[in-house]
């Protein structure tokens, strides 16, 4: 990355480098605040992968502070515009004719990745990225100040610790360890060197570092990244910011032709952006190569190819969705599992906000499990169970639960039942065998939509609908078509938040007799054992997924969770990677 074959005397700070005029070194402490700044979903931006979700701190003060820290993140686009639409970040690249590179799809990357790690589970792979400083660095790099205009803040920070913090965020799911500095002369490294014909600066040959770095890579190391102040050059080029060798699991990076004798050398506030911006870009780019990512030809992305230092500095720091999916897969970072892991703290916060909810279909198998979980977790200050008749509730149910009997054919007469309910759940459903075709449509379609519309008018902000995996408004099958039509109708009601769950075959012990389902469940039992997320899901898993999603910040106004995502979001499924990891650790501890 950043190779140059020009004869220019020195590459100074470019306009791209000046974009990062100041950097807050406390990345991890800023994560919580940055995640709440923007209403758009799933943004990846700035120093690492920052998932921006709608929260309760979307204030003007937060935006001002963010703009002060990162004054202009992308050429031609104001920071304010990035708060409005995160997906504007991913501009498609123009295709050359014929294409110079065909690009690497996720499935192409996965095929090579799976072959490489065929005999290893995710937990058995090397999980640590090591950063190795090499030789001495100027004093002003070891201890330098960051200054920015917002509230006149100043602080000193160790550059290497800051780079470690960046890598820890960018490569979420991996551990990052900073090794003590080593001196090449003391440990006998033989690395070819030369002096650049124009700049006169000393340069080291990058390929000579790889075998040395590989030999000192610890057993748990995924890769080792060498950092050196002296310039680098590869064969056939006169300069490079950094390169990596997949064979050696090693990369070597320099500080990008910043001369120690420069007049700027003692004023770090002027060169901070240049040093940090170049380093974090080249480190993230080359480390992704070590994890099997090729150059990206789809969108503007940190994995775009560059052939000069200005090109390297000018390209964005964020990964496009295609490359980010590859990196997440390798690092074992799963957004849905992250949500489930954070569910406990989210639940406490949500509970303190004092929400109220209603539940449709609470007497059915799915509804009963959901209501029981709501009682066990004490999610709401008030829960109204809406049905055609009262049923005997478990004695453990608290006073916050109350049953309201309504006539769904005259639901307009019961508008007050939904008054003050800001959350709604619909687990309502019947079968054509039980109610006939017209009865099925009336219950699964009309009753649900009428209740949702009245609830919306009475102040409901978040509606949760249990659909089906096969939902499709154009399906030839009545059940799938009806569920799909309900989904589409709910979307145009414009709830503040609409969560649609599409479970596969529900595994439960029904009280009513459904011979067809009983036969299907018996047939699918071995399938659910070996492939738990494929075409089955226990009702308990769906319930936990609905609650975990409920208490998590919204990613977008309309959320649709397919069967596998439901398993992952629940945190209790046998098909949930997080649970499997915890179970393995527990067994190992025993």
UniProtKB/TrEMBL annotation:
Alphabetized UniProt keyword annotations = Acetylation, Disulfide bond, Hydrolase, Metal-binding, Metalloprotease, NADP, Protease, Zinc
Q: What is this protein called?
A: Protein HTATIP2
Q: Which CDD domains match?
A: CC3_like_SDR_a (cd05250), Peptidase_M54 (cd11375)
Question: Which Pfam family, any one, appears in the UniProt record?
Answer: Peptidase_M54
Required co-factor(s) are: Zn(2+)
Q: How does it assemble?
A: Monomer. Forms homodimers during oxidative stress. Interacts (via N-terminus) with elongation factor EEF1A1 (via middle-region); the interaction is direct and competes with EEF1A1 binding to guanyl-nucleotide exchange factor EEF1B2, thereby inhibiting GDP for GTP exchange and reactivation of EEF1A1. Interacts with nuclear transport receptors XPO4, IPO5/RANBP5, IPO7, IPO9 and KPNB1 as well as GCN1L1/GCN1 and LRPPRC probably through their HEAT repeats. Binds NCOA5/CIA.
Q: Does the keyword RNA-binding apply?
A: no
Instruction: Report the source organism.
Output: Pomacea canaliculata (Golden apple snail)
The record's InterPro entries line, in alphabetical order, gives: MetalloPept_cat_dom_sf, NAD(P)-bd_dom_sf, Pept_M54_archaemetzincn
Q: Which domain of life is it from?
A: Eukaryota
Coiled-coil intervals: none
Q: Which GO terms describe its biological process?
A: import into nucleus; proteolysis
This protein's GO cellular component annotations are: cytoplasm
Family matches, as PANTHER family: OXIDOREDUCTASE HTATIP2
MF-aspect GO terms:
metal ion binding; metallopeptidase activity
């Amino acid at each position: 990355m950043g190779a140059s074959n020009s004869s220019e005397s020195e590459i100074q700070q470019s306009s791209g480098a000046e974009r990062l005029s100041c950097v807050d070194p406390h990345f991890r402490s800023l994560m919580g605040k940055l995640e709440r700044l923007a209403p758009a979903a799933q943004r990846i931006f700035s120093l690492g992968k920052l998932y921006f979700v709608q929260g309760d701190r979307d204030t003007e003060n937060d935006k001002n502070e963010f703009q002060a820290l990162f004054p202009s993140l992308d050429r031609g686009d104001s920071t304010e515009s990035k708060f409005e639409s995160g997906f504007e970040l991913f501009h498609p690249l123009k295709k050359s004719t014929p294409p110079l590179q065909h690009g690497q799809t996720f499935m192409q990357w996965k095929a090579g990745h799976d072959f490489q790690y065929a005999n290893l589970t995710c937990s058995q792979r090397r999980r640590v990225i090591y950063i190795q400083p090499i030789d001495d660095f100027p004093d002003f790099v070891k201890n330098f100040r960051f200054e920015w205009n917002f509230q006149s803040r100043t602080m000193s920070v160790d550059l290497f610790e800051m780079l470690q913090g960046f890598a820890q965020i960018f490569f979420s799911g991996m551990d990052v360890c900073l090794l003590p500095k080593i001196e090449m002369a003391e440990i006998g490294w033989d690395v070819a060197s030369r002096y650049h014909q124009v700049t006169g600066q000393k340069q080291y040959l990058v390929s000579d570092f790889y075998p040395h770095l590989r030999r000192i890579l610890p057993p748990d190391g995924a890769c080792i990244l060498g950092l050196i102040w002296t310039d680098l050059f590869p064969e056939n080029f006169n300069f490079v910011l950094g390169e990596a060798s997949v064979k050696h699991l090693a990369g070597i990076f320099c500080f990008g032709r910043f001369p120690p004798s420069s007049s700027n050398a003692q004023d770090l506030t002027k060169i901070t952006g240049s040093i940090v911006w170049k380093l974090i870009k080249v480190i993230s780019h080359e480390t992704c190569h070590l994890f099997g990512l090729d150059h990206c030809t789809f969108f503007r992305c940190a994995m775009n190819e560059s052939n000069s230092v200005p090109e390297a500095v000018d390209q964005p720091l964020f990964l496009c969705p295609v490359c980010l999916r590859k990196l997440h897969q390798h690092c074992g970072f799963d957004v849905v599992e992250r949500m489930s892991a954070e569910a406990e703290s989210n639940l406490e916060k949500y509970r303190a906000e004092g929400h109220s909810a209603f539940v449709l279909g609470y007497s059915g198998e799915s509804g009963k499990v959901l209501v029981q979980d709501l009682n066990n977790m004490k999610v709401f200050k008030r829960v109204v169970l809406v049905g055609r008749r009262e049923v005997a509730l478990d004695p453990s149910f608290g006073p916050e639960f109350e049953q309201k009997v309504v006539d769904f054919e005259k639901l307009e007469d019961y508008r007050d039942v939904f008054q003050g309910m800001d959350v709604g759940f619909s687990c309502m459903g019947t079968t054509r065998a039980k109610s006939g075709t017209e009865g099925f449509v009336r219950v699964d379609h009309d009753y649900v939509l009428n209740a949702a519309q009245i609830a919306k008018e009475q102040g409901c902000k978040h509606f949760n609908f249990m659909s089906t995996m096969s939902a499709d408004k154009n399906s030839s099958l009545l059940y799938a078509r009806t569920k799909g039509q309900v989904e589409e109708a709910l979307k145009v009601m414009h709830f503040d938040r609409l969560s649609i769950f599409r479970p596969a075959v529900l595994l439960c012990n029904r009280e009513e007799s459904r011979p067809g389902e009983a036969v299907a469940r018996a047939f699918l039992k071995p399938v659910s054992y070996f492939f738990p997320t494929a075409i089955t899901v226990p009702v308990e898993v769906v319930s936990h997924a609905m609650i975990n999603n409920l208490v998590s910040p919204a990613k977008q106004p309309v959320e649709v969770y397919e069967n596998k995502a439901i398993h992952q979001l629940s945190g209790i499924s046998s098909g949930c990677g997080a649970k499997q990891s915890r179970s393995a650790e527990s067994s190992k501890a025993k």
